[in-house]
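Lab notebook, page 48
Experiment: co-folding of the full assembly
Goal: obtain a model of how the components sit together before planning crosslinking
Operator: M.T.
Materials (sequences as entered):
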Amino acid sequence: MNLDFNEAQEMLRTSAKDFLSKECPKTKVREIEESESGHDADLWKKMADLGWLGLTLPEEYGGTGGDLMDLVLVLEEMGKNVLPGPFFSTVVDCSLAILQYGNDDQKKDLLPKIAEGNCIMSLAVLEPEGSYKSKGISMEAKAEGDNYVLNGTKLFALNANVADQLLVIARTGSAENGITAMIVDAKSSGIKIEVIPTTGFDKQCEVAFSNVSVPKKNVLGQADKGKEVLDYILERSAVMKSAEMLGGCEASVEMATSYAKERVQYGRPIGHFQVIQHYLVNMYMYTELIRNMVYQAGWMLSADVPCTTEVSVLKAFASDSFKYVSERGVQVHGGIGTTRDHDMGLYYRRAWAWDHLYGNAATHKDKIAELLGM
Amino acid sequence: MDFSFTPEQEALRKEFDDFFKAEMAKAPEGIGGGLEDMFDTEAGFEFHKYMAKTLAAKGWLVRAWPKEYGGQSAPIIEQLIFSDVAGYNMAPGIDVFGIGMIGPTLLAIGTEEQKKEHLIPISKGERFWCQLWSEPNSGSDLASLSTTAIKDGDDYVLNGQKTWTSGAHRADWGFGIFRSDPASKRSKGLTFMVLDMKSPGLTIRPLLSMGNTHIFNEEFFDNVRVPVKNRIGEEGGGWDVTRTTMNFERSNVGMASMGKRMIEELVQFCKETKLDGEPLANNPFVKHKIAQMYIEIEIARSLAYRIAFAQEKAGDNMFALIQTAGVMSSAKVWGTEMLQRVAYNGLEIFGMYGPVRKGSKYAPLLGAFESLYQFCPGANIFAGSSEVQRNTIAWMTLGMPRSWDEVFKAQRA
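Observation: model returned without errors.
Model output:
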């Protein structure tokens, strides 16, 4: 057992911290989330130059060959900084699955572009029902010759509005798990994308497909075996989203703690009052509890140790805890914490936005109960 | 980063587990490793003693201690594994007061004579201890204690009252702090003593818990004479002695393991038990309750690993150990508050059977959840209440002002 990060990882953390605070201060965060695209091309280019977009990709595909713990670290720092934009949808939701399930052509074509910053991706899996389960996927991809023809609506596809390629999970068979993952050019004719206004200002999109033709060679993995791909994605994305939530919790604790030391009422800093101290301690405690589970699940993924239960434990706990921690953060700040100009609200809103992604607490509790044989 | 155990550690885990499984098959019905199990009934205490002797015979009772006193200087991670397995098997046998507290204190600052007199009997599982700290007017604020130990020739003479003493009615020996300088205030003028619990003038009375179980006691000291050779450390230096500790595993992993065992049994119960014709395990309310408990327990386990690793890394470096104080306090708060929720949720799932106590054929899972329901509020209070732990974290880890500093100032003035 060795629960420390290695030296290279500590350096990566430091450089991520430095880069994000310099290149994406909170004024910039607000600017990006208020912009129509929710994406800053200049920042994207810089992240590509740093090697972040290919962090976990092998060198032959233009990556830097890091492992999933490196990604955990970077996402923790991104969460601290509430970095907006298509990093998560591109790198976590899509590039990991392409590396795992893509054939040589797909990997050679897409991965270097992703690493260079020339291909933004979005995962289009959810539908109006809002379920991540196979049962919830009914949008049909009908086989016609060498193509599939897609008709229907995908919802809550993150950053699809700026995506070059979509990773679509669609129904190809009548069996419950008769779904298929495929890469779809976002500029294909018949695709219409609209941003849905959300709490997190995080550019979740409606993607409408009307007779969209997709070559069969674009299938990721095997036809009708899309559940395997989807499970792979959801497991990794749930852990990485939790890493972002951990960062969000850390920042909330830091902000509220400094504020309690500075804000004077009744002639003393409000940190003197035990009720404030105990709120802060609870926030700290939940943060530390998430931290260990994030690192544990992250390590299990990177070491290829089966961890379906641990992932559900983590995501359920992180979802609930980040909501609690960010809400208490606002409370400690008092009125100022509720304003647009204050940073605390950025975290409070993200907590809710991220809660449902890749399964909320209730969904994961269902799964845990199932894994316990109930 | 690597969360895995070595093959040797995994083998050790199996060895511990095989042992505890076989031994716990001999436990009286409903007797586990909790304070109530060990101290309430004669049969429970006899089994606690039996387990201590059996563990001693295996060489496992004081594994963390140095070799010359019967131990194996077991590394922290091995201690973690031991506590994990013992907790999961709900095994008694480890006298936390003797093995975890007075033993290490004597190892650190006891005289050769004191070590010889006490460490060997502890390591053989032959001498059991209790801790004489709290007083009726000195709970969380221990430094305000007033029971006196006044030197008189070759003895100290003790007068006053101690309370909340777990297992005093079963213990052979006790250790505690007393005010040796009646004019002193707070942590000055306190002296650390060990004494025979059969000493003349010492009266032990039960302090029964709400469920009529006998775990705690109060002790009345009426001119109890304790030889000067039983003083540990210097006269007036008792407060510092209480802070002496060796690097014992303090991860609280046992709470997570015990919780896990209880949940596993609860799941089995819910599969086998029907309500309105449907197994409880099919009920969404039940499923979510159990999943939530499972989540909290696994989260506690993950934190325990981190604490053990931090301790192992820190070794005897006090500064590094203090860095872990925040997570250690968090583990105590989280662990006891979590077990409380485990108890409540279990009882809720049992419905009408929830309140049935052990001993009845109607008690679900031998009444373990009912016992825990009555015990768990105490767990949030003893060994540093949840509030005191939170104060500690606020002060030591988050750098908040100590709100009681002003009170101290006023008292000193």
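Interpretation: Chain A has a mean pLDDT of 97.
Next step: discuss with group before ordering constructs.
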